[in-house]
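User: I've been trying to design a sequence by hand for this structure and keep getting stuck. Would you show me what you'd pick, starting by listing the structure so we're on the same page?

Assistant: Good idea, let's start from the same input. This is the structure you sent:
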């Protein structure tokens, strides 16, 4: 099967569809790779990255943060093949806190009816009545990640941090980026100016903790577009998950907030290790973005 990407004439993805045992197809006792020049490897990587930077310098939607909320949002938005979606993730490894359940345990608990999202993305779980359990949180994250990254209209820029927002007349119009290692070292080096991505809509899904948590809403507060930033309240699973979904919204024109950044913004309780609200908040954020873009959405 050959899939032709809509992005560029040169990017043709090849999936052989050959399910045969690959180890039967070569000699492991006398194995040789096809030849390659080192410079070709360099050029193949650089060319594609630079083409992506050119292509995504103007995006329809920029999603900041590839945790469970940001990835769920990307999944929902990428169903529209006409949207160009950039995901900016400061970490080398996307996934945020969703590689583990809680306190470094493996399993991920999801309260119903968010299991319907798992059905859609084909993540298996154990049905426990009012909730379901995925054997490994990493199974959720790796599955959603692999599906999102296969979409031709999505580009992940990892190891890249959003340092600031583009704001014109009170409307968020894009993001200011830098290599994450640079962003973390501004105080040790002289000025290292950033790059920019213009976007019709920015979705901020930066979570609540770490040096860059709640980047989007903290910046909005510092420029007076958000008056109060109380930070998340103490844990109350039942209240927290409903509230995070309820408060997911376009907080100022051009900027939608999702996931635990919502709890930071509104002082909602944290839910701890139950993840359903992240999926549904991400989905809702996608529909807020569609609405802001003037496209059909499911908010009503
Ligand atoms: O690296 C961050 C993480 O992957 C990334 N990020 C943060 N600031 C960034 C910036 N530029 C680029 N300035 C940035 N990337 O955003 C991602 C956030 O993922 P997360 O898993 O921390 O947040 P989430 O809202 O998707 O999921 C929260 C999960 C939690 S926390 C919690 C509790 O503390 O009670 N409970 C749940 C379910």
């Amino acid at each position: 099967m050959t899939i032709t990407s809509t992005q560029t004439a040169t990017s043709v993805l090849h999936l052989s569809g050959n399910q045969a045992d690959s180890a039967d197809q070569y000699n492991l006792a006398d194995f040789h790779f096809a030849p390659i020049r080192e410079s070709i490897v360099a050029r193949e990587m650089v060319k594609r990255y630079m083409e992506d930077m050119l292509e995504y310098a103007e995006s329809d939607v920029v999603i900041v943060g590839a945790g469970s909320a940001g990835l769920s949002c990307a999944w929902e938005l990428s169903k529209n093949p006409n949207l160009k979606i950039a995901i900016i993730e400061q970490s080398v490894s996307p996934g945020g806190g969703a590689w583990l359940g809680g306190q470094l345990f493996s399993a991920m608990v999801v309260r119903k009816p968010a299991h319907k999202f798992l059905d859609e993305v084909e993540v298996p779980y154990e049905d426990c009545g009012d909730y379901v359990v995925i054997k490994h949180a990493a199974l959720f994250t790796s599955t959603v990640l692999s599906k999102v990254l296969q979409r031709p209209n999505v580009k992940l820029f990892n190891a890249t941090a959003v340092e600031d927002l583009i704001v014109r007349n009170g409307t968020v119009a894009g993001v200011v980026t830098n290599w994450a290692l640079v962003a973390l070292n501004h105080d040790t080096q002289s000025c290292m100016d950033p790059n920019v991505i213009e976007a019709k809509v920015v979705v901020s899904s930066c979570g609540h903790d770490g040096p860059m948590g709640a980047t989007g809403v903290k910046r909005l507060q510092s420029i007076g577009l958000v008056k109060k930033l109380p930070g998340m309240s103490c844990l109350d699973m039942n209240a927290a998950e409903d509230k995070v979904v309820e408060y997911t919204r376009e907080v100022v024109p051009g900027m939608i907030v999702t996931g635990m950044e919502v709890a930071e913004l509104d002082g909602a309780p944290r839910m701890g290790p139950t993840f359903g609200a992240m999926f549904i908040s991400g989905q809702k954020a996608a529909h807020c973005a569609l609405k802001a873009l003037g496209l059909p959405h499911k908010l009503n």
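That's my pick for every position. To get oriented when you compare it with your attempt: The chain has nine helices and 13 strands. The first helix runs from residue 38 to 56.
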